[in-house]
């Protein structure tokens, strides 16, 4: 067991192998205020990667409604419950145990093993509200809302310290040095399913036809060509951007992912207390229950929400948000000048330039030409 | 030593009692704790694996305690299989092992989250320099014969399709599997099944028993078979599995009358989700006396 640095927890954590950060680390940032659960991402992944036998139930990308949804069933509650208290100190350091630290000496990772019935309800809890029941219609006038739900799109987090990789007794899982993508070697995997038990996010899945385990491949063939993954480029809500995240000590303010996560503190890893340094990051939903969000995103969530609400005053951040969803290519660097935001590839070539604000036209509510009331339906 | 002699006398008594009943009907004998396995020669054809053939009457069952795999996590919390009963015979060219252990109910695996009952025999590749019993070490390979109930199911009923595992599964269409237009070749269709497309032995129909070579944990690799055959039957709370193999397999393990060699074993309780390193194993190598 090694001691490795986990910047998300503000302390060292235990891990099976010594620290070995990749040259670049694959990451996706999602703005949860904008996801509409259209599941286009889910289908984009499904049709690209999991149309084979034994993959029928697999959703490497899924979108669930929080607080009640979860695929597989209650995946998050089941591991959080086992983990015990998850406190943080005043400076943002995690005081509890990680899933690796909480495992006894006969196990590598604290875990639970999903059974087939756990994979039967991908849409459970869809659009169900948290915050109790209501007899009649609700008027949600203040933030956060007392009746709330939000959509949580999820892929594999290509963790810096993957539990799946740590748990595999055959060493059939590896993390690529060039981009941090975590892959299961389909030639060597023997289908023990240790990764399926160990991944607390339940993003490793058994294939009963090939009798191996499979997981999100980060769309590595696209990434190798400088293109963002299928679930990102097909996102209808344009809520996602894929790029490469640096650890905070190497962060660059002109890298879109570093900017959102490190520079602005707008996007946070989910369930960081599990201890794997997951690399999918979320801009938290501003309307949802704060205690619930704190459990999911840690104590920095309050600050992230405050920052989000200040975005209209921040032209650089607003510019970056306009760039998201404007190109299929991976943006390595961006800048915002003269009301325009531009993204550049790894070699520095310009990929796209977009205006930060579109012209606003105000029209009277009554359209005299056709004799009708104009609806303000965005 | 005295205790040992007493034990073997008791075993001999049981043995002669068994033989006395009949030589054409198989009789299940009571196993006694032993420290080695005797491999008598019988006049029988051991090319097929038959757990209840009368020729097993010629071999005294020896029982050996098992321990929860002690080295590499994940490992069992305690010994889930207390002991294994071993019988062995040879016919001059082949050797057969009859392995019997308690298991409350059979588990064959197939569906998500299920695991198979299994047993494995392990032999050193070089007889006079025993490798670590824990699956060998670099430069000190071991030769393994791995039976799974799941592999036997493949051999007897074919490798299961999704509809065999989930009869009510509703599947619109697999890639290139058109109902009315021309479909792709098998190879083209299997491209969408990564383990199959890459030739992973796990993704192909099994013969019942896998032959493997290993040089330590995490290194086992399936080899082309050398004519090993296995068959198991679960009855009344026990698995009885026979694995037969040629005595001499050049380039892997060799068993020769009079020459000393050793054997070890492992048992997996699939119903308790044992698989891979979650297993119960022999404490040490057990000498094999091939007569
Ligand atoms: S495609 Fe985008 S908006 Fe639609 S569900 Fe997926 S993440 Fe949400
Ligand atoms: S999310 Fe799970 S499957 Fe993906 S890298 Fe992390 S531990 Fe492995
Ligand atoms: S990155 Fe690619 S493989 Fe992973 S969930 Fe998205 S589309 Fe699927």
Give a verbal description of the structure:
The complex is a heterodimer of chains A (378) and B (291). With 378 residues, chain A is an alpha+beta fold. Chain A folds into 2 domains: 2-133 and 142-249 and 263-307, Alpha-Beta Plaits (2-Layer Sandwich), CATH 3.30.70.20; 314-378, no CATH class. Chain A contains 10 helices and 17 strands. The radius of gyration of chain A is 21 Å and the shape is globular. Chain A starts with a strand and ends in a 5-residue tail after the last strand. The model of chain A has no long low-confidence stretch (mean pLDDT 96). In chain B, strands 1, 2, 3, 4, 5, 6, 7, 8, 9, 10, 11, 12, 13 and 14 form a 14-stranded mixed beta sheet that branches. Chain B is globular and about 65 Å long. Chain B folds into 2 domains: 31-157 and 210-290, Immunoglobulin-like (Sandwich); 160-204, no CATH class. Chain B has helices at 2-21, 149-157, 162-165, 186-190, 194-197; strands at 32-33, 37-39, 62-68, 83-90, 94-102, 118-124, 142-148, 209-214, 221-222, 229-235, 238-246, 260-268, 280-282, 286-290. Residues 1-22 of chain B have low confidence and may be disordered. Chain B has 5 helices and 14 strands. The A-B interface holds A 51-54, 56-57, 105-108, 113-116, 118-119, 167, 169-171, 186-194, 206-212, 214 and B 72-77, 110-113, 115, 160-162, 165, 169, 171, 174-175, 192-200, 202-203, 217-218, 220, 273, 275-277. The structure holds iron/sulfur cluster (3 copies). One iron/sulfur cluster (SF4) binds next to helix 1 and helix 6 of chain A.
Question: What order do the helices and strands come in, and which of them pair?
Answer:
The complex is a heterodimer of chains A (378) and B (291).
Chain A: E1 2-6, E2 11-15, E3 26-31, H1 40-49, E4 62-66, H2 75-83, E5 150-154, H3 163-167, E6 173-175, E7 182-184, H4 194-198, E8 204-207, E9 212-215, H5 220-223, H6 230-233, E10 240-244, H7 256-263, E11 268-269, E12 280-283, H8 290-297, H9 301-309, H10 315-323, E13 333-337, E14 340-344, E15 350-355, E16 366-367, E17 372-373
Parallel strand pairs in A: 3-12
Antiparallel strand pairs in A: 1-2, 3-10, 4-5, 6-7, 8-9, 11-12, 13-14, 14-15, 16-17
Chain B: H1 2-21, E1 32-33, E2 37-39, E3 62-68, E4 83-90, E5 94-102, E6 118-124, E7 142-148, H2 149-157, H3 162-165, H4 186-190, H5 194-197, E8 209-214, E9 221-222, E10 229-235, E11 238-246, E12 260-268, E13 280-282, E14 286-290
Parallel strand pairs in B: 1-3, 2-14
Antiparallel strand pairs in B: 3-4, 3-13, 4-5, 5-11, 6-7, 6-12, 7-8, 8-9, 10-11, 12-13, 12-14
The complex binds iron/sulfur cluster (SF4) (3 copies).
Residues 156-159, 162-164, 182, 199, 201, 203-204, 215, 276, 278 of chain A line the site of one iron/sulfur cluster (SF4).
């Amino acid at each position: 067991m090694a001691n490795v640095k986990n910047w998300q927890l503000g302390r060292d954590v235990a891990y099976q192998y010594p620290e070995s950060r990749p040259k670049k680390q694959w990451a996706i940032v999602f703005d949860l205020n904008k996801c509409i659960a259209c599941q286009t991402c889910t289908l984009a992944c499904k049709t690209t990667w999991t149309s084979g036998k034994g993959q029928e139930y697999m959703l490497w990308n899924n979108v669930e409604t929080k607080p009640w949804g979860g695929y597989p069933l209650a995946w998050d509650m089941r591991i959080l419950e086992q983990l015990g208290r998850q406190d943080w100190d005043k400076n943002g350091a995690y005081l509890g145990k990680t899933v690796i630290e909480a495992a006894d000496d006969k196990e590598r990772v604290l875990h639970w093993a999903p059974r087939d019935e756990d994979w039967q309800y991908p849409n459970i809890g869809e659009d169900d509200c948290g915050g109790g029941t209501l007899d009649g219609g609700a008027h949600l006038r203040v933030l956060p809302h007392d009746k709330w739900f939000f959509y949580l799109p999820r892929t594999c987090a290509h963790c810096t310290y993957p539990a799946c990789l740590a748990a595999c007794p055959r060493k059939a899982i590896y993390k690529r040095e060039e981009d941090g993508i975590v892959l299961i070697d389909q030639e060597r995997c023997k289908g023990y399913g240790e990764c399926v038990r160990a991944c607390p996010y339940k993003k490793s899945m058994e294939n009963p036809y090939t009798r191996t385990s499979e997981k999100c491949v980060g769309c590595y063939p696209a990434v190798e060509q400088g293109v963002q993954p299928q679930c990102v480029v097909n996102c209808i809500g344009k809520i996602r951007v894929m790029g490469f995240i640096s650890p905070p000590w190497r962060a660059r303010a002109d890298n879109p992912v570093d900017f959102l996560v490190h520079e602005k503190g707008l996007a946070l890893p989910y369930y960081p207390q599990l201890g794997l340094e997951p690399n999918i990051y979320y801009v938290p939903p501003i309307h949802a229950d704060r205690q619930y969000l704190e459990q999911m995103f840690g104590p920095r969530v309050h600050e992230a929400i405050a920052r989000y609400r200040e975005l209209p005053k921040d032209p650089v951040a607003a510019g970056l948000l306009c760039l998201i969803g404007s190109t299929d290519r991976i943006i390595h660097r961006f800048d915002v000048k003269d009301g325009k935001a531009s993204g550049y590839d790894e070699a520095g070539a310009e990929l796209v330039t977009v205006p930060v604000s579109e012209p606003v036209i105000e029209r009277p509510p009554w359209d005299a030409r056709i004799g009708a009331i104009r609806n303000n339906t965005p | 030593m005295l205790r040992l002699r007493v034990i073997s006398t008791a075993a001999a008594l049981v043995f002669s009692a068994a033989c006395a009943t009949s030589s054409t009907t198989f009789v299940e004998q009571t196993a006694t704790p032993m420290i080695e396995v005797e491999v008598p020669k019988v006049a029988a054809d051991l090319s097929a694996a038959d757990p209840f053939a009368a020729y097993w009457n010629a071999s005294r069952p020896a029982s050996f305690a098992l321990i929860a795999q002690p080295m590499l996590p994940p490992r069992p919390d305690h010994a889930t299989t207390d002991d294994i009963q071993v019988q062995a015979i040879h016919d001059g060219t082949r050797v057969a092992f009859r392995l019997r252990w308690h298991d409350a109910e059979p588990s064959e695996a197939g569906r998500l989250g299920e695991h198979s009952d299994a047993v494995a025999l392990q032999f050193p590749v070089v007889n006079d320099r025993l490798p670590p019993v824990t699956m060998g070490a670099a430069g000190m390979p071991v030769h393994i014969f791995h039976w799974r109930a799941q592999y036997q199911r493949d051999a007897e009923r074919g490798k299961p399709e999704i509809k065999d595992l989930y009869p009510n599964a509703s599947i619109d269409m697999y890639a290139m599997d058109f109902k009315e237009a021309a479909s792709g070749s098998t190879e083209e269709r299997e491209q969408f099944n990564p383990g199959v497309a890459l030739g992973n032995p796990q993704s192909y129909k099994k013969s019942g028993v896998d032959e493997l070579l290993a040089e330590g944990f995490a290194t086992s690799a399936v080899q082309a078979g050398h004519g090993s055959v296995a068959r198991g039957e679960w009855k009344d709370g026990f698995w009885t599995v026979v694995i037969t193999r040629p005595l001499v397999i050049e380039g892997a393990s060799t068993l020769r009358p009079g020459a000393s060699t050793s054997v070890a074993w492992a048992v997996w309780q699939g119903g308790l989700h044992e698989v891979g390193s979650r297993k119960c194993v022999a404490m040490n190598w057990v000498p094999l006396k091939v007569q």
